[in-house]
Design goal:
Blueprint: H1 2-14, H2 27-48, H3 59-67, E1 73-83, E2 94-102, H4 105-113, H5 115-127, H6 131-135, H7 140-153, E3 159-169
Length: 170
């Protein structure tokens, strides 16, 4: 046994001891400190900044708005326009009264200020129509062309409908 102890001591003396001053000596300690700091920061931020609340959109308000009837807004100062269609050379005359439906009340004020300009735009558009277009029962192409011409001039809203309350062709 004494011989074994002597051999163990020789082996211990022969093995060089590893230097504790190597570059990786504190690596494990640094990793542990970083993990603790990260966990602490997560807990602190989670406590300091609450999670955003999920707010559901209110469907009830939208349903109420759909059920409410909004009366249309009309501009009726385009009365008794008399003109000669494009292809008649003065042989036929058309007399009509036009009412314009607008989307907002603000447009009525703008139309009152620009009444002469809008009258001229509508008259030029109507004079450019042929007799065949004017004889169509629904006159949809005429309505669209008048609506587009007037909407190009308006800035605060738009005309949504054109209605002929009186239409006479002689």
């Amino acid at each position: 046994m004494a011989e074994e102890e002597a051999e163990n001591q020789k082996e211990e003396q022969e093995l060089p001891k590893q230097d504790a001053k190597g570059p990786y000596r504190y690596l494990l300690l640094i990793i542990i400190i970083m993990l603790v700091e990260t966990a602490g920061a997560y807990v602190a931020l989670d406590w300091a900044i609450p999670a955003p609340e999920v707010v559901e959109e209110e469907q009830v308000l939208e349903d109420v708005e759909e059920d409410v009837f909004v009366p249309p807004i009309f501009y009726g100062d385009m009365a008794e326009m008399v003109f000669s269609p494009l292809d008649t050379r003065g042989g036929k005359l058309v007399s009509l009264t036009m009412v314009l439906e607008v989307d907002r009340l603000v447009v009525l004020d703008e139309m009152a200020l620009k009444h002469s300009i809008l009258w001229d735009l509508a008259l030029r558009t109507l004079e450019g129509q042929s007799v065949e277009d004017l004889r169509e029962p629904d006159k949809e192409s005429i309505r669209e062309s008048v609506k587009n011409a007037i909407n190009e001039e308006l800035r605060n809203g738009a005309v949504t409908g054109v209605y002929f309350t009186e239409f006479i062709m002689q």
